[in-house]
C-alpha cells in the first residue's frame, strides 16, 4: 500500500512542478490544424502560394502536374490558375526569381519550401506566417516573433495588415532583465479579417504539409485496406482454429 501511495504522490507532485515551471509561451497558441484530405483547403493554399510565395521560394521536388492531380485539379485548371510563367505542366514548381539577385536583395538565399513543414513542423510554419510585426530597425521594416531577425519581408502584409509587438521586461534567475515580446496587436488593417487571415495561413500550411510528403494521401488509403485485410484474415484464422480444435476437445 505504501508503494502505491508513494507512486501517486510522485505523479501528482511531478505534474504540479511541471505546471508551475513550464508555463507555455504565447507562441504556443498558434497551432496548425492540418488536414491534407481537405482538397478545398489544399487548392486555396496552392493559390496563395503561387501568388505570394513563388516569387522567391520554389517547390523543386514537386511538379505542377502531380500537385494538381493530388489536390483535385485538372491540367487545364492548373495551367490557367497556377502557372503564370513559361513553365509547362510537367515542370517542377520553380521560382522565376534569380537566386543570386534574391540573395543580394534579401541578404539570404530564399530556401526551397518543399520540405519545410516536415523539417520544422506545421505549427512552426503557421506561427511564422502569423507573427510578423513592425520593426523599423530591420531592412525590410518587419521582424518575426517565431524567427527573430528573419530576412524575409512580410509578403502577406496586404492580407493581414501590420502588427505591432507588445514588449515586457522579464528578469531571469541570474538577475538579467531582457525585453521580450508578450503579444502582438494589429495596428493597420489588411484586406482580410483576423479570422479570414488565420484560415488563409492554415490553408498555406496545409498545402506545405502536403508537399512535404505527398505519399500521405496514398499511404492513408493503402493503410485502410491493409488494416481491413488483417481484420478479415484474423477472423478467418479464428474461425479456422475453432473448426480445427473442436474435434480435439
Based on the model shown, name its key terms.
Cytochrome Bc1 Complex, Chain D, domain 2, 6 strands, two-stranded antiparallel ribbon, alpha+beta, 15% strand, disordered N terminus, single chain, 249 residues
**Overall pLDDT:** 85
Separation of termini? 43 Å
**Total domains:** 1
Radius of gyration over C-alpha positions, nearest whole angstrom:
25 Å
CATH topology: Cytochrome Bc1 Complex, Chain D, domain 2
Distinct helical segment count? 10
Instruction: Tell me roughly what share of residues is in helical segments.
Output: 40-55%
The residue ranges in which pLDDT falls below 50 over 5 or more consecutive positions are 1-24
Q: Largest beta sheet: what is the strand line-up? A: 1-2
Please tell me the CATH architecture by its name. Answer: Orthogonal Bundle
What characterizes the major β-sheet?
2 strands, antiparallel
Summarize the helix and strand pattern as letters: HHEHHEHHHEEHEEHH
Structural class: alpha+beta
β-strand percent reads: 5-15%
The counted number of beta strands is 6
CATH class, named Mainly Alpha
Looking at CATH, the homologous superfamily is: Cytochrome c-like domain
Shape: extended
Amino acid at each position: 500500500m505504501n508503494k502505491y501511495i508513494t507512486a501517486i504522490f510522485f505523479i501528482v507532485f511531478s505534474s504540479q512542478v511541471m505546471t508551475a515551471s513550464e508555463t507555455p509561451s504565447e507562441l504556443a497558441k498558434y497551432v496548425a490544424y492540418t488536414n491534407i484530405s481537405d482538397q478545398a483547403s489544399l487548392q486555396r493554399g496552392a493559390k496563395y502560394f503561387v501568388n505570394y510565395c513563388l516569387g522567391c521560394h520554389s517547390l523543386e521536388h514537386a511538379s505542377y502536374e502531380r500537385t494538381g492531380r493530388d489536390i483535385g485539379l485538372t491540367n487545364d485548371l492548373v495551367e490557367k490558375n497556377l502557372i503564370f510563367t513559361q513553365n509547362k505542366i510537367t515542370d517542377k514548381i520553380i521560382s522565376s526569381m534569380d537566386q543570386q539577385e534574391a540573395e543580394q536583395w534579401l541578404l539570404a538565399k530564399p530556401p526551397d519550401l518543399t520540405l519545410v513543414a516536415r523539417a520544422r513542423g506545421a505549427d512552426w510554419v503557421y506561427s511564422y506566417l502569423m507573427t510578423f510585426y513592425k520593426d523599423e530597425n530591420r531592412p525590410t521594416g518587419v521582424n518575426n516573433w517565431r524567427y527573430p531577425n528573419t530576412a524575409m519581408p512580410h509578403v502577406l502584409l496586404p492580407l493581414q495588415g501590420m502588427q505591432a509587438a507588445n514588449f515586457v521586461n522579464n528578469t531571469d534567475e541570474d538577475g538579467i532583465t531582457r525585453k521580450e515580446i508578450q503579444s502582438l496587436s494589429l495596428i493597420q488593417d489588411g484586406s482580410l479579417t483576423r479570422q479570414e487571415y488565420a484560415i488563409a495561413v492554415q490553408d498555406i500550411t496545409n498545402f506545405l504539409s502536403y508537399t512535404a510528403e505527398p505519399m500521405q494521401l496514398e499511404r492513408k488509403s493503402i493503410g485502410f485496406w491493409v488494416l481491413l485485410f488483417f481484420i478479415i484474415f484474423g477472423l478467418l484464422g479464428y474461425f479456422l482454429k475453432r473448426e480445427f480444435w473442436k474435434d480435439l476437445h
